[in-house]
Amino acid sequence: MKATFRQGFTTFLMLLMLALSVSAQAERKLLDQVVAIVDDDVILQTELEARINTIIGRLQAQGTGLPPRDVLEQRVLDQLITESIQLQMAEKMGMRISDNELNETMDNIARQNGLTRAEFEQQLAAEGVSYRQAREQIRNEMLTSRVQQRQVGNRVRVTDREVENYLQALEARGGNSAEYRLAYIFIEVDDPASEASVEAARDKAQNLRQQILDGRDFREVAVAESDASNALEGGDMGWRTENQLPSLVAPVVPGLEPGKPSPVLENNSGFHLVMVMDKSGGDQKQLVRQHKVRHILVRPSEARTDAEAEARVRDLYQQLQDGADFAELAREYSDDPVSGSDGGNLGWVSRGQMVPAFEQAMLEADPGELKGPFRSRFGWHILQVQERREKDVTGEARESDARQAIYRRKFEAELQNWLREIRDEAFVEFKGAYATENGSDEEAGASS
Asked: According to DSSP H, which parts of 63-159 are helical?
């Protein structure tokens, strides 16, 4: 009897373990199910959930209201699909982001937020994001940005005449150096050749503007409804001076009351709303601190390991300490052919022109001091700041800002067209519940 009981109990345990195993496998399968096939890639449910959670955390930190879950889920899935297409393009182009470059970028992000790397990791963890996940997301963003610059940037040209006209128009409006924190909503016209499609987009934009006037949060509307590439950031455009404003919104922004939406603006790409979230004044005169700097660069290569490059640069540093001539060593040993031929001279450099590691060393160096050796993504450096000055760059800055404003406007318009093109050309098949939601048969698939 006891033997029979033990045998029955053992069988029960085996069946229970089998059931639990099957259940666990089913749960893992459910969690990792494919929600969409994008050309040669797949998007998993776990990826979708992780991105949704990240965006929810960011929006809540901004105090931005959340759209309905199904709306947010669909918009995030669309974002992942577009991102996947671009990352596959980057891979085919042979684009890579090295670990050194990625580390520099992560450290720079932490530094811009006044954090050490350890503090940055702690802040990410508090938001439910691991440092590894953040690194990979930044890597992907860097890759998609490079793909966009290569594919879209080639389509954009800014002429001197356009810059001149822009500055004249700014002057005619009594342009000043006020700065505006802007948010933006874009409603795309599905078929510009169809008057019905144009009217539908116009009506939608007008309706959304009225909802905002009635109290709905502008950034929440951007997340839920905007067709702009920054929609999931609440339409945030950051701070812009008046001569950095896109030409479409430049005439209306200075007169907008902060917190009130603009009238619906129209151009060939669709309908637009902009809101001034905040505003600050500024001085007309723009002074920048410039550094007259020279350097020696030693690059690792196939014939020289990183350790050998470091040993070489340390030897050169010692020679400089012993009184060797900087210019002569730069001409003979620097792997930067342009500056090396000129004794290592980089001329007058302003903040933001150099990679983070180089800029940090340059800002820390006293005039005449040798700084290094230190490493950037280009290799090992020794630098010397020879002089510093304050330069009035008001005229140059206005022209540069105008050129950048025109470029950004053209680039954004071309980017929207290009993203629509690559999405139309890609094979996208939705799976499971998403096949039903997107109006496709799961078995047959759908191309969109």
From this structure: 69-92, 99-112, 117-126, 131-151
